[in-house]
Structures are given as C-alpha cells and as structure tokens.
C-alpha cells in the first residue's frame, strides 16, 4: 500500500527548520526569499498537509541557508515524495480530516505500542464492534457511509499481515476496555475471541492490565499510541518517535524528546504491571464467556 506524503513532508520540514535555525536566518527572511506568508512557512517546517511544496522553494532556501550541494539535492528529492497520495485518500469522506496525519504515521511505523483504557484499538476491532462505535459517535450517519468506514478500517488492518520484522504492534488494554459492552453481548463475545486470535499472530502481542492492580501511572498517562519508525538510509532523515493521543474533538501529536521519554517510561511501567500474554488470553476468554 502507498504510504503517502506524511513522512516525506515531516522529514523535509524538520530539516529545513534545523538548517534555518543553524544558519541564523530569520523566519521573515525565509518567507521573503520564497514569497510566502509566515503561517505557510510554519506549516512547511512542521510537516503539515496543505502547502504545495516546490523544488524551487527548497532550492532557494538551501542557498539562503548555505547548505552543501549534495545535502540540498537530497532535500530537493524529497519534494516529489511529498506529492504521493496515501491509499486512504481513495476513501474520501470515510476518513476524518483530522485522521490523515495519523494514518501516514501508522503506515510508515515499524513498531506501534498502544495503551487503551476505554475502547480497543481500531487495528484490532471487528466489523460489528467498529460499526457500534461509529453509530454511537454519529447516530445520524447514513448506512452507506458507515459501511465505507468499515471497509476503510478493514484495509488499515492489512498491516497486521506484514512480516514481523516490518511491523510489530504491542497492545496493552485496561480490563475495563474488554468489559465495556460495545454493541451488545454477541458483538463483544466475537470481538474478544478475535482479540485472542490476533494475539497469537507473529505481529501482535496483547496484554491486559487488571482492574485490581495498585499502580496509578497508567491511569495518569491515559490512552496513547507510541509510533516508532525504521532508520532512513540518510540517518539525519530518520523520523523520530511520535506519541498520538486521540481526543473526542481532535488529536494531539507529541514529538519533543522530553515528551517521548516520559511516555517511554509510562510504557515500561505499564509493561511491568500487565499480565503476561498467556494470562491475558485466559482473562479475555473468561470475560468472553460472560458475554455468551
């Protein structure tokens, strides 16, 4: 599947910002050089979707920042990659506008570690479970649109079929997330059996944090997803880890080193408190039987 423009945009933007700051060139001077507004420069440097990147922009900025010719050529080559649409763009309105950035990151990630308190992660949801979540969030959505979102989620889940050296997903869920009755008893029973089945694949591990544990850090951290990326042939272009936090009306992306360190510590604490994989499967199946 096509990974899209997210990672090339972020690579290019991050490098341009670092080069500008090292050269001592002001934002105003950079804007004047390529005749854009300050807000557009900010969007370029932070890898946001929207601004149309051109070779001449990057070439001009590299000259302004006194970038060596070979390094400039590498950055200019990224411009073409920023124009590649991701596979999910074919689904149009089925993909929420604020989810586009996350999808690009998810598609490029080599390892994904997620901790969920209330709902199971989308990559592991059955069609009926996902349908129930969509109906709850958008009760007036036409059925055809709901089914388009179900199809889109199913295509996302194809990442789970990749070899484990290309993609790994470490899932930690609160016991509460597997007890919430999403869609009714039969839906939950099917979902939990599916969760156990997926946990036996080479790509996915699933571990549960019981409600009885006395360790509040996971509650303080809340639900989050840590995405880590493979090394780039040009080491300085390697995408640093990103923490994604989904909210009811939007999302938060954290990538500052101090923020990543905090969440890696949270991952370590959560991993230490969670049941092992076998005990987690036993608990999930016990709860599944309660729904039968």
Keywords:
292 residues; alpha/beta; 434 Repressor (Amino-terminal Domain); Endonuclease, Chain A; 6-stranded mixed sheet; 13 helices; 51% helix
Topology, element by element:
Blueprint: H1 6-23, H2 27-34, H3 38-45, H4 55-64, H5 69-81, H6 100-108, E1 111-116, H7 127-137, H8 143-156, E2 168-174, H9 175-179, H10 185-199, E3 204-209, H11 217-221, E4 224-228, E5 242-246, E6 251-254, H12 257-273, H13 277-291
Parallel strand pairs: 1-2, 2-3
Antiparallel strand pairs: 1-4, 4-5, 5-6
Helix pairs in contact: 1-5, 4-5, 7-8, 10-13
InterPro entries: Cro/C1-type_HTH, DUF5753, Lambda_DNA-bd_dom_sf
Protein name: HTH cro/C1-type domain-containing protein
Organism: Nocardia macrotermitis
Give a brief description.
It holds the Pfam family DUF5753. This protein is of the alpha/beta class and 292 residues long.
């Amino acid at each position: 599947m096509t990974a899209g423009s997210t990672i090339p945009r972020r690579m290019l933007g991050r490098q341009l910002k670092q080069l500008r700051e090292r050269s001592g060139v002001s934002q105003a001077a950079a804007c004047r050089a390529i005749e854009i507004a300050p807000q557009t420069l900010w969007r370029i440097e932070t890898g946001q979707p929207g601004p149309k990147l051109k070779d001449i922009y990057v070439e001009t900025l590299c000259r302004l920042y006194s970038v060596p010719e070979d390094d400039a050529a590498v950055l200019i080559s990224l411009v073409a990659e920023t124009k590649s649409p991701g596979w999910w763009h074919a689904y149009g309105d089925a993909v929420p506008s604020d989810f586009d950035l996350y999808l690009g990151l998810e598609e490029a990630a080599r390892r994904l570690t997620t901790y969920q308190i209330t709902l199971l992660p989308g990559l592991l949801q059955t069609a009926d479970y996902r349908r129930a979540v969509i109906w709850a969030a958008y009760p007036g959505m036409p059925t055809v649109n709901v089914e388009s979102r179900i199809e889109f989620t199913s295509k996302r889940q194809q990442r789970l079929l990749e070899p484990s050296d290309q993609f790994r997903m470490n899932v930690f869920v609160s016991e509460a997330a597997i007890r919430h009755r999403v869609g009714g008893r039969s839906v939950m029973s099917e979902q939990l059996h599916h969760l156990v089945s997926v946990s036996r694949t080479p790509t996915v591990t699933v571990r549960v944090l019981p409600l009885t544990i006395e360790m509040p850090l996971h509650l303080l951290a809340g639900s989050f997803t840590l995405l880590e990326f493979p090394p780039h042939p040009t080491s300085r272009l390697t995408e640093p880890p990103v923490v994604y936090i989904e909210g009811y009306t939007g999302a938060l992306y954290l990538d500052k080193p101090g923020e990543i360190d905090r969440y890696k510590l949270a991952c370590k604490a959560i991993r230490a408190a969670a049941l092992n994989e076998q005990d987690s499967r036993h608990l999930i199946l016990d709860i599944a039987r309660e729904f039968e």
